[in-house]
Amino acid sequence: MVIGRKHLAALVLGAALVGWVIPWSGVIGISASTGHWKLTDWFLHWAMRSSVRTSAIGIEVPPLEEGMLPMAAGHFEGGCALCHGSPAMPPPASVRGMLPVPPDLKEVIPTWTDAELFQIVQHGVRFTGMPSWPVAEREDEVWAMVAFLRRYPDLDGASYRRLAGHAAHQSRDQGRVLETCNGCHAPDRLDRDSLVPRLDGQSQTYLRDSLAAYAEGMRPSGIMAVAIQSLTEQERAALAVHFSERTVRGVNAVALSNQTGRGEHIARFGDLDRRIPACMSCHDRTNGNPAYPRLAGQPAAYLAAQLRLFVDEKRGGGPHRALMAKVAANLDDSDIKAVAEYFSARDPSADAGPDHIVPASVGFSSRGR
Ligand code: HEC
Ligand code: HEC
Ligand code: HEC
């Protein structure tokens, strides 16, 4: 018999019908309780590994730095430990019912490259419950998580808690919101290499605007989105009041690098030929607009990272963000380094305006530091 077009068409139609009837009949189980067959399990995981390996090809790994660890550890506690557990805590019993069960990361991390971990954390794993990063724009945050995961297999409970700050153990207790914030933001945890900003002494207006921008997705950050996801607008406002009322403390004198001469020049006078305005015409003046953030005393790494986000058009922000985006467009990498060093080394209490210096804390619920 010659196989003609008609036979082929019938075959395709038949296959399609069977492919439709079988799932329609309901014989394919979708309940997680029964688990997969060993073979299915093996096949799915093999397919997942292959997919990750292929999509990680060509991803370039940036330098993974020490300063990335604390913020990523704090986020791990709030956003990952609930499924994977942590060195300080076994995973909750409820996730044992997930299919697949979230793996113990200590065991699996060594089997992945940095680029593959980036791919998994950025995009998640379909059909498994492993979520993608909450915002698509912030590859820098995902790389920070990769830096942390690389360290993860070597962490014990104590070293994990040290990195994750007060956030460890407390992030799931609604009454302890403030401790969660301080787990990442406590000034004594922040040195110049930190990617987390200080909040103490920032104006109430700027803090409130920033929290609203995170909540509404106008300032993309997966880390802050998760940190404030359960807060109401009133709670956010109360937190803005609390942190603005913390006394501003000076930074420890940081050795000024030879970059700061240039940084100070840009800060005070700008570079008009290159259409860079004086930063201090908006920032850190005694009578500054409270919607403009204080930069003095912020970690240099944080300031530089935010400026790069502005340059890459990924920063977002509050209602006045467009002003800053325009300024940043003309900064090159060496300008960014120089101004970040300069403002970081500047004493924040020296030029705080009326909106910045406030009497002792009448705080949110606990005492300010
Ligand atoms: C809702 C539960 C859940 C959350 C939250 C979660 N994961 Fe997962 N994760 C999973 C599951 C389930 C898998 C297994 C996927 C698979 O085997 O295909 C997984 C897999 C992984 C893997 C790959 C491990 C392997 O070899 O299978 C990594 C790495 C990972 N998660 C890291 C993270 C990080 C980092 C976070 C936080 C940003 C996170 N996960 C948040 C459930 C979760
Ligand atoms: C897991 C660590 C972590 C936790 C927990 C956390 N933050 Fe943040 N916070 C960050 C990071 C990182 C940034 C910078 C994000 C970015 O790139 O925009 C930030 C930025 C901010 C900003 C913007 C400051 C500025 O100078 O622009 C405010 C305001 C803020 N956080 C308030 C809070 C409050 C209030 C809480 C508690 C509800 C909190 N954060 C919890 C890590 C954290
Ligand atoms: C015309 C006013 C204006 C000028 C000039 C200006 N800025 Fe800004 N800047 C802003 C505003 C407004 C924001 C807050 C954006 C937001 O998050 O809503 C900001 C935010 C920033 C931030 C982020 C701070 C944080 O806590 O996240 C940095 C860093 C910064 N500016 C650096 C500079 C530098 C460096 C210069 C000089 C080269 C400069 N700015 C000049 C208005 C200005």
From TrEMBL:
Domain Cytochrome c: from-to ranges: 67-153, 258-347
Keywords assigned by UniProt, alphabetized: Electron transport, Heme, Iron, Metal-binding, Transport
InterPro entries (UniProt xref): Cyt_c-like_dom, Cyt_c-like_dom_sf, Cytochrome_c_Oxidase_Subunit
Top-level lineage group: Bacteria
SUPFAM superfamilies noted in UniProt: Cytochrome c
Organism: Mycoplana rhizolycopersici
Name of the featured protein: C-type cytochrome
